[in-house]
Amino acid sequence: xxxxxxxxxxxxxxxxxxxxxxxxxxxxxxxxxxxxxxxxxxxxxxxxxxxxxxxxxxxxxxxxxxxxxxxxxxxxxxxxxxxxxxxxxxxxxxxxxxxxxxxxxxxxxxxxxxxxxxxxxxxxxxxxxxxxxxxxxxxxxxxxxxxxxxxxxxxxxxxxxxxxxxxxxxxxxxxxxxxxxxxxxxxxxxxxxxxxxxxxxxxxxxxxxxxxxxxxxxxxxxxxxxxxxxxxxxxxxxxxxxxxxxxxxxxxxxxxxxxxxxxxxxxxxxxxxxxxxxxxxxxxxxxxxxxxxxxxxxxxxxxxxxxxxxxxxxxxxxxxxxx
Length: 323
What we know:
The structure is a single chain. The chain is built from ten helices and ten strands. It has helices at 6-11, 64-76, 93-107, 121-130, 144-150, 155-168, 185-198, 223-237, 261-268, 304-317; strands at residues 2-4, 25-30, 53-54, 57-58, 61-62, 82-87, 112-115, 134-136, 173-179, 201-206. An eight-stranded mixed sheet has the order 5-1-2-6-7-8-9-10. Strand 9 (173-179), helix 7 (185-198) and strand 10 (201-206) form a beta-alpha-beta unit. It is globular and about 55 Å long. The model has no long low-confidence stretch (mean pLDDT 95).
């Protein structure tokens, strides 16, 4: 059995579900409760969250052959443009992921991503050879202190493996960063800059408190702070700004981008900086949001009025340069 996100199941015709935004990637989950114990994750070893949940989304199970066939049909019709396996850590999770990737690759030519915890570079190579277009190795935390507090494990090894994989497989390695776990804007942006310099593709998530996890009572990040980190990622990834020119308050908060306000406004005017980041065609509708609530990651192009409002709010929230 493979689990599919509720939205994915609806798009694939596996389970009718009313929705106002369709995923453009088929999101699939492999494995049972994770052997790891990340404090923010519904699938963590000691989590009391629903077994079928990841973030605030439910993932019902379906026979894998049925899912693969449905993805192939949806890809041919243009309803799905990518597939992504979210993999919990288990005793055989790499072998199970390799098998799943190979099965889907044989059924369809849709690009496949595996978001997984490899043990070494050989594991990454196995998944790419099985048919994955890219492998995402989730760092999640921006600093070692945040990593140890929320994830445990070996920070240095995780960073080293990301760097090794990016060098060995250029353009085929990504990572996830969660904003709002206790890092400063300066720490988040420094990590983003370093990852981009390695050639790692960065997907930003807003911390989402999930009932049944140790961080269930913690707040999500302030929207204004998240917008500034989003803008930094977008500008840096496109070579439109230099991290060396960024400036921060003494506490590491409230970045300014080293660009005249009019220039920054023009660069951000289309609103693309505030859309979901990560792999191409990944839009993750409502992964961090509730319909009608605060929109951390827009899953679609912004309307002109939305883009204008977001850019105006960002510019108004920047520290003004002292003369």
